Amino acid sequence: MGNDSQKDTNDTSALHDTSLHLADTDGDFPVHWKSGSLKYSDFKLMTEGGTAKLFLCRDINLHREVVYKTLHPEMRESEIETQRFLREARVTAKLAHPGTVPVYEMGRDRNGDMYFTMKRVRGRNLRDIIQGLRDSSEKITELFSLDVLIDSLIQICQTVAYAHNHGVIHRDLKPANILIGGFGEVLVLDWGLAKVWGETDLEHEPLPKDADPVLTPAGRRYGTPLYMAPELARGDAHIDGRVDVFSLGNILFEILTLKQLLHGKTAQDVADNLLGQALLKPSEAAPDRSIPATLEAICCRALEKDPRERYPSVQSMLDALKAYRLAGTSLG
Hints:
β3 (52-59) and β4 (64-71) form a beta hairpin. The protein has 332 residues and is α+β, with helices and mostly antiparallel strands. The strands form three sheets. A five-stranded antiparallel β-sheet has the order 2-3-4-6-5, covered by helices on one side. It is globular and about 65 Å long. The protein has twelve helices and eleven strands. It has two domains: 3-121, Phosphorylase Kinase, domain 1; 123-326, Transferase(Phosphotransferase) domain 1 (Transferase(Phosphotransferase), domain 1), CATH 1.10.510. The two termini are 30 Å apart.
């Protein structure tokens, strides 16, 4: 959501691209001005997923670039995807926090199709960062030491704890939904599957046997199979903030090992492995890496299959990570 990856944050052209110019700030405002979707021009496709497209476009009134999101035509009749789209816009707009992307506007275009606009954010998602570390990219390794990634995880936990305090559970936390900007900002994206306070607990539909475990399934209320908590894999009716604790533990596992915690060719394979097999400790999964024992303990507690054995809240996990950093131990 609003992800505009930069290969080199020090690139001179990127600096000029984000600098303010007089033409952007001065000039007359026309008497007959445009509103709604008509005030956006110069659309360029940024990315598209299974349910929606993101465009980069220009707000001709404020002279700024924004990200414009709209559903694929075939998804516009889907009640679940429409609700997810509305929820993403409204939850993100109401969770005004440094760790979320500002939403500017929601409306319908001339065809009656819904859209919302948000701030354009420049950075790299955590999935690509971890992949770069796996590939021993010199630039990525220089920019993203273990210290930096743990500090980023602390910011992620702060955002999620803030959301929980406001009655919102994310339910789809994963590296692809974390954006790290060139100035150290860390953003949690894609709140479309969030559970909000007062929502009726419903038993989840079973996983389709051939669903892609890497993607958030269209038309479903659960998150990405590779990062879901056991409660979601089982289809439990009642869930709470500890599902996000598990996903944060999963993210920490990848940061520490540069490997995925769960595996399987299909979503059902992943769920079967999650529910039926013991999870490896980070040091077992990556014996060649120097993994601090305290961080491994934090990771393992967050990944307990029984929610009662996990951290009782994201705030508790956050406190543990902060305590580790405040101890002054170098992580890398």
